[in-house]
Please model this.
Amino acid sequence: MKKRLSILGAGWLGLSLAKKLKNDFKIKVSIKDDYKKQKIMNYDLESYILNENNFNFLDNLLDTDYLFINFPPSKFINYVSFLEKIYSNKHINNIEKIIFISSTSIYPNEEGVYTELCNIQKTTSRPVYESENYIINKTDLIFRCAGLMGYDRIPGKYFSGISLDCEDVKVNYVHKDDVIEAIRFSIEKDLNGIFNLCSNIHPSKKEIYIKNSKIFGFIKPIFINKKEYKNRIINAEKIESYGFKYKYPNPLEYFNY
Model:
């Protein structure tokens, strides 16, 4: 019998994860409204509405073997309060593994190399910091993802033709396919703890934006009046020590089809 996997947050990452794993798991997903339900009908997924004002189907969603939680805190009035409703549910203690997607924005906006062992005194994102602090002792596995890219998320396209002064800043990106494979890998290997997910090569913004402008034909950003910015480098080698291999270790090669 297939194990059950509930995916809370069937957005850009969550929906792709559901489609990738639906042959291996019996999957349920949460969606925020009826409009989203119509959009995913073609994927043959069992879906239920879940948002800050509607917890009617939470019991059903949490009656599962594996739970994957992936919401952007910025989309909530009070994300921690929303999480409290989930983690206080009667089914939560019966779940075999809870996987939570966090962000490397939990680390400070200061020069340095950041690993999972860093003692975080300051944070770039207070909502991410507060939400992770709430769930950290209630969750089996936390993935701190760098900037999610790939497919229709193309670094530099948003800045087409715009003047920028950050040409030397190193990027911290991770390809969506690598995040999905890391989740699959972590279930297979029964991993627990906190893991950064980030391509381990960090080109500059200028390098990656210019290359993508050539690949996709958009007007390249204009790099002028260069300023000195802090370089935060996310080290995500920990998961590799367990045998995981990034398919896309270099963001410059995300779109080399």
Q: What stands out?
A: The domain at 3-151+173-200+234-250 is CATH 3.40.50.720 (Rossmann fold). The mean pLDDT is 96. Helices lie at 12-21, 34-39, 58-62, 79-87, 126-135, 176-189, 205-216.
